[in-house]
Amino acid sequence: LAKAVLFYRIHATQLVLLIESLILCGKNATYKAKDFAYRLIESALENHSLEAKYQLTKYLSADRVLEKLHKIKYEQIQRLIENVNKNLQLPKSVTLAIDFTDKLFYGSKKLMDVIGTKGGNYARRFIEVSIVNPALFLNAFPVNMLTNNKVKLISGLIDGFKALYKKSEIGLLLLDRGFFTKAVVKYLVSNKIKFIMPAVKNREIKYIVEGCFKMKKSMILDYKFGETNVYLVFVRIDGEVLVYMTNTRLNPLKVSLLYKKRWQIETNFREQNNFEFKTCTLDFNARYFAFVLAGLLFNLWQLMRKGKIQSYLFKQSLICELRNLWNEIMKIKDYEPVA
Question: Which residues pair with 100 in a beta bridge?
Answer without folding.
Answer: 127
